[in-house]
Write a structure and sequence with these properties.
alpha+beta, four-stranded antiparallel sheet, 2 helices, three-stranded antiparallel sheet, about 40% strand, single chain, PH-domain like
Length: about 110
Amino acid sequence: MESVNITYLWRGKKTVLGLPIGATKYAVSEEKIFIEKGAMNTEEKEIALEEINDISVTTSSMEKFFKVGTVVIKYGENKECKLESIKQPMMVSELIHQYVEKARGIKSYSI
C-alpha cells in the first residue's frame, strides 16, 4: 500500500494462528478501505466507504481461540470482501461504520 498523502485510521494484516505474518494487508482511511493480497503477485483493491451497504463480524472457534475475527463488508451490487483473521475485529467494524456514516453525511449519536 503506497501512501500518497493518505492518513490511515487503521492498518492491519491477516493473521496466521493469531500472528500477523500473512501476506494480506488491510488499511482504512476516512474515504476508503484498502486491501493488498499476495507477496509475489500482488492484487490491490479499494472500496469507497459510501459504497458499503452492510458490515458484520464473524468469528470461528479457531479465531476466538487466537482472539481474532473477520469483518465482512457488503458493498455495491451484491459484492463482498472480508478483512480476514484480524485483531480487534469489533473495533475495526465500528470504526468503518462511523466513517461510512460520515461519508454519507449521517451523524452518529452515542447513547
